[in-house]
Amino acid sequence: MWTPKKVYMDHVAGKPVDPRVMDAMLPFIREFYGNPSSIHSFGHEPRKALDEARAKIAKLINAERAESIIFTSGATESNNMAVKGVAYRNMDKGKHVIASSIEHMSVINPCKHLKTRGFDVTFLLVDKYGLVDLNSLERELREETVLVSIQYANGEIGTVQPVREISQIVHRKNAYLHVDATAANGQVPIDVQKDGIDLLTLSSNDMYGPKGVGALYIRSGVRIEPIIHGGGQERGLRSGTENVPSIVGFGKAAEIALNEMQAESERLSKLRDKLIKGLLESIPYAFLNGHPTNRLPDNAAVRFNFIEGESILLNLDMMGVAASSGSACTTKTLEPSHVLLATGLKHEEAHGSVLFTLGRQNTEDEVDYVVQIMPDIVKRLRAMSPLTPKELQVDV
Amino acid sequence: MYSEKVMEHFRNPRNMGEIQDADGVGTVGNPVCGDMMTIYIKVKDNRIEDIKFKTFGCGAAVATSSMITELAKGKILEEALKITRKDVADALEGLPPVKMHCSNLAADALKAAIEDYYKKQKGKVENQ
């Protein structure tokens, strides 16, 4: 068996920075340390680089103008800004917000915060694949609804939402649509104008840029107020001296993603399908989480009955493979993933989930290796589990 | 995040399996929480002659199950009953704080198995 030293398949948790991105960033750490807001010559290069990065990111999502991109400290801040900023600025229209029940916590918790401030919040149910029910979206929209927040795709189960159809429904009721594209950006083509998106969350590290930087696209004309107040940078919408080296890296990452996305997504989709097929065919009582076809190219989310996710991850780690799990034992809250539970999985099913997320450096050999080692890991843990049915009991 | 001792027991669990004609069986936890373990004991002359476990759960759940079988094997029942959750965690060179409560169930499972043994013995006496 071909055995690698290390196989990294946890790209949803963190991605390596592309060497081309690093090269683009270095001059802005070494030489061009000036503040882009300065009037003197030290501010010129950083200002120019900031504008260029903004234009590259605007191009990736076909934004109508570069100024619609507001830089933030990452997807969590962008999501907070979209949800709270739009809600607080549009209270004259109403105090109702809608989000799907499988949003990232950086959307769900700002929505819960709004509840404590007198807002009404509706969390939309999803079907067993994680798709938002368009009929219930239509039913829940009211005259007072100011914002609907639905992710482009889910990082844990890979399901891609029908964003254009959602947009048409939301706009018929004159609400804004915020789309969290953290998991999707750089993997699927996003066109904010054709898709009908009013606000879009982008994350740098999810496109092989540095961590700690992200953006919020805000369509011109959208009424929003800042959540970080200060010196008035980013058109007054996000104060604080711009993180120039990281923003430059983010811009470079967006440029690379635009050029390479199509070929890379096709490559990853093939690896993903091979991995999923290999696991489901060689292991009994193994199932796919999320949608079978409308799913992100990098996402292979599977679950194995009768065993627990953290034990699977530790066994994989002993074999050099890094993955993640939706099991309670791997979360800070000791609750299984809210995403898996929302798709109707029982707690004990969610506990047995393993998430492989592929990336640029993964090869077919690595996929074959995981498919080869996984059956023995599952057998070993099932032999240990009191939940395993008799017919699956084997000596290991 | 786990100590080397925990990982060693996770990699090579001691006394894993079932005892078909066990004198006492104790199960604690449930799959909903993510941790469930069953301890089987064979008792001779008031002493734990053999002990095995089966566990569904995380690394800490497996390691504590394995460790309690080592701690309890050969002990007289009164002494085995005195083994606490803390004894198990200490023997494993500590557990991460979040795992101290949710996954450190092995001492409870052993108690349940010994109580089951006592109950069965009482039943036998009453039947005679």
Task: Please specify the SSE layout and strand pairing.
The complex is a heterodimer of chains A (396) and B (128).
Chain A: E1 7-8, H1 19-25, H2 27-30, H3 44-60, E2 69-72, H4 75-89, E3 96-100, H5 105-116, E4 120-124, H6 134-140, E5 145-149, H7 163-172, E6 176-180, H8 192-195, E7 199-203, E8 214-218, H9 244-282, E9 286-288, E10 299-304, H10 309-318, E11 321-322, H11 338-342, H12 347-351, E12 353-357, H13 364-384
Parallel strand pairs in A: 1-11, 3-4, 3-5, 5-6, 6-7
Antiparallel strand pairs in A: 2-8, 7-8, 9-10, 10-12
Chain B: H1 4-11, E1 24-30, E2 35-44, E3 47-56, H2 59-72, H3 77-81, H4 85-91, H5 99-102, H6 106-127
Antiparallel strand pairs in B: 1-2, 2-3
Overall 3D shape of chain B: elongated
What topology, given as strand order, has the largest sheet of chain A?
2-8-7-6-5-3-4
Can you write the helix and strand succession of chain B as a string? HEEEHHHHH
User: Which fold name fills CATH's third level, the topology of the largest domain in chain A?
Assistant: Aspartate Aminotransferase, domain 2
Gyration radius from CA atoms of chain B, angstroms: 14 Å
Radius of gyration of chain A: 22 Å
- Tell me about the largest β-sheet of chain B: 3 strands, antiparallel
Q: Write out the CATH superfamily name of the largest domain in chain A.
A: Type I PLP-dependent aspartate aminotransferase-like (Major domain)
Q: Please tell me the overall pLDDT of chain A.
A: 95
Terminal residue distance of chain B: 53 Å
Main structural class of chain B: alpha+beta
